[in-house]
Amino acid sequence: MDPRLEKVLKLPLYQRLLILVALMLVIAGLFVYLMYLPMREELAGLQQKDASLQSKIQEDQRIADNLPKFKAEFEKMEALLNDALTELPNEKEIPNLLTSITALAKESGLNVTLFKPGAEKPKGFYAEVPVELKMVGSYHEVALFSDAVAKLPRIVNINNLTLASPKDDSGRILLAVNCLATTFRFIEGATAVDAGKKPGKGGKK
């Protein structure tokens, strides 16, 4: 028998029990350090991963459940965009549209003294096309002109409208009319992402 083992066996009982307890504590400590703690850490990582996957599954399920609604919203937005584009003339239509504005002014009884197109201002999928107008006519004729412009199939806004220098012409009060007529041209090649807000159609301001 190993002399060291014989020496231990000859120790009093309480000492042998202390040695046994110490050995058991060392074995338990090694088990905790080498096996239990790593397995516990791995389990925590798996639980966290599982919670993340469950959250993603719930989010995917929510999206799947709402897919018909999202599709309907997309189709609605696409229809609104198409409606907006039908009100925006392309580059070839701009000259005719501007000519129609002066024609409406004359048909309303106004005398056009200045017709000055300004520089285009790109605004995403469309560009503003401003035209400075100076006219002479009565208040009633100005109202007729504004109403006619508002009824155009294309968007045209009348802004910065001023009425000044009233003159009596044989009982007819004539006014110097200044305004900025702004239409909007669709920029070909632009995407719906560039759309932003649809240009507003309004009357005189």
Shape: rod-shaped
Could you tell me the radius of gyration in angstroms?
Answer: 42 Å
CATH class of the largest domain: Alpha Beta
CATH architecture of the largest domain: 2-Layer Sandwich
Number of domains: 2
| Broad structural category | alpha+beta
Average pLDDT number: 79
Describe this structure in words.
It is a single chain. Helix content is 52%, strand content 24%. The chain has 205 residues and is of the alpha+beta class. Strands 1, 2, 3, 4 and 5 form a five-stranded antiparallel sheet that branches. Strand 4 (156-169) and strand 5 form a beta hairpin. Helix 3 (94-107) runs antiparallel to helix 4 (139-150). The longest helix is centred in the first third of the chain and has 74 residues, at 13-86. The termini are far apart.
Brief characterization of the structure:
By secondary structure, the protein is an alpha+beta fold. 52% of the residues lie in helices and 24% in strands.
Short key terms for the protein model shown above:
membrane; transmembrane helix; 205 residues; 5-stranded antiparallel sheet; PilO; 5 strands; single chain; 2 domains; transmembrane; Alpha-Beta Plaits; 52% helix; 4 helices; Pilus assembly protein PilO; alpha+beta
